[in-house]
């Protein structure tokens, strides 16, 4: 009789665990910020234009995103802003953000299948990047802190990143040619995350995941992502659907397309012959 009861109890535990896994949902709101370094190559840019440019660039990199999630999958999407993006400031000056995103952008991740689908609006053309989630070799640290009501634990990992030359658009032509032919330098960067086991999913913002709890904070070079609000099991059920729009490519192919577009934009906005020294160089640290 005890054996039968034990089997029944174990079966109920399994069923309830599956139900809870299916029903467990949440919405986490994240604020992102990226430090900027703006280099002026022209002494003809007045302080008023410099201030306007700084404000414009800051807005481009201070955004709010929502991560809707359950135990196995998530959607990461920017909150729709009512402000119209600025594309220029008059005269010869323009800020062009290649692949900066839009309302069509949405990142789907399935941490069980280790797959993602990233729908991107790149300069008016929509791509659907599908590929495997790259494993992150996290090191779990003992340091803890609270983010809101959640106790968080520190985790870090090391990655190699490219560092490009800082010559800008207006350096001497021969030097510029030499710099363009140089390979970018690779340096090691430590990425820091803070996660909470109180929300037991191995997910997080952007392409950060793989820890024993939801990631609430990320420091990756000059990029900072911080969770500002969490709603667990909201009254209105969340539906997580894979994005389907766009030309389907893998990550490697998309990176090739982006590199080509960036080179095209650099050529388009390069100062013409006889006008060197009249432009502005913008360097965004990663």
Overview of this structure, please?
This protein has 286 residues and is of the alpha+beta class. The chain has one domain (2-283). It is 22% helix and 37% strand. The strands form 2 sheets. The chain has a 12-stranded mixed sheet. A two-stranded antiparallel ribbon has the order 2-14. The longest helix has 22 residues, at 2-23. It is globular. It starts with a helix and ends with a strand.
Parts with pLDDT < 50 across at least 5 consecutive residues: 1-21, 84-99, 166-177
| Total beta strands | 14
By DSSP (H or I, 4+ residues per run), the number of helices equals: 4
What is the first-to-last residue Cα distance? Answer: 64 Å
Note the overall shape: globular
The overall number of domains is 1
Sketch the topology as an H/E string, one letter per element.
Answer: HEEHEEEEEEEHEEEEHE
Radius of gyration: 23 Å
**Would you tell me the overall average pLDDT?**
78
Give, in spatial order, the strands making up the sheet with the most strands: 8-9-10-11-12-1-3-4-5-6-7-13
Which sheet architecture does the biggest sheet show?
12 strands, mixed
* Percent in strands: 35-45%
As a percent range, the share of helical residues equals 10-25%
- The chain-level structural class is alpha+beta
What is the secondary structure topology, with strand pairs?
Elements lengths: L1 H22 L1 E10 L2 E3 L7 H15 L1 E8 L2 E6 L27 E5 L4 E8 L2 E8 L6 E9 L2 E14 L9 H9 L3 E12 L17 E7 L2 E10 L14 E3 L1 H18 L12 E3 L3
Parallel strand pairs: 7-13
Antiparallel strand pairs: 1-3, 1-12, 2-14, 3-4, 4-5, 5-6, 6-7, 8-9, 9-10, 10-11, 11-12
